[in-house]
Amino acid sequence: MQFAQGAVALPDDAEGDRWRACVAPSIGLHAIAMALGELHKIDPSERPLAMDKAELGIKQHAGEINSAWAAEPMPESLVELIEDAKSAWEDSLHEGVVWRCKSERFTTRHPGEIGLAMREAGFMGEIFVAAPGVEMFKDAPVAWCRDQSGGMPDEQVVEFVDGFLETCTGKVERPEIMRPLHQVYRQMDFLSGAMHDLVAPVTGDLPAGQPLLVPVVVGGEVCSVSLPPKSGKPMDPIEVKWSTIAADEAEN
User: Fold this and answer.
1) What is the spatial order of strands in the sheet that 96-100 belongs to?
2) Deepest of 17, 39, 57, 72, by most Cβ within 10 A of its Cβ?
3) DSSP track, 143-175
4) Peptide bond into 180 cis (omega under 30)
5) Do 112 and 228 touch, CB atoms closer than 8 A?
6) Cα–Cα distance between 138 and 61 in angstroms, integer?
7) What does pTM read for this prediction?
8) Mapping DSSP to helix (H, G, I), strand (E, B) and coil, where does residue 240 land?
9) Strands 193-201, 239-242: pairing kind
């Protein structure tokens, strides 16, 4: 609203015209970005349409701003506004349910039964689980699932994954909504071995390290998951570090 009110005082020249042309689409982008953060409050059945409308709205408003500045370099503030709206949409698409390790360590068994059950149920979203036989440590995500358009899947899907995790070795926290979801990367030192596990959002740049959460179901397709390695000496616990962005999302 301050932007709209300030447009009255813009100079009556080419640059002022460009800024005035950006008032309505800028407000639209900001409104969409804020609304995307509230998607968890709507009925899940309405989420796909809401995501489609948000995507179309972002493209429309961004196109209007680009047209206004086609002949001149776009101000950084408008570039950031467009990127913020796009990031909000991407984060919403990757919103889902996460299980974190509650015990000192946690190890899953092979998740083949999850894939078979989800195929029979016609589940079209995604489920990732820690690679079978790989030790995970306290506070690390050990599994997550999301609906096809982001958000919490059907309650029966969440209950099935929760039940599977209860039969694995170790304890998990109660499932929680997180936006965006994230991967766990085991970062190594060639001399000393595993240094720590880094938790980072699945959106944005990929950090170095071995990803520990493997796809079990993606888009309704059951993924091949390797059998657990031969059991050996347990690892010494290593620190679980959250990237700054992931830590902020976890606190929220």
Assistant:
1) 176-178, 96-100, 141-146, 126-130, 213-218, 221-222
2) 39
3) EEEE-TTSS---HHHHHHHHHHHHTSBS-BPPP
4) yes
5) no
6) 43
7) 0.86
8) strand
9) parallel
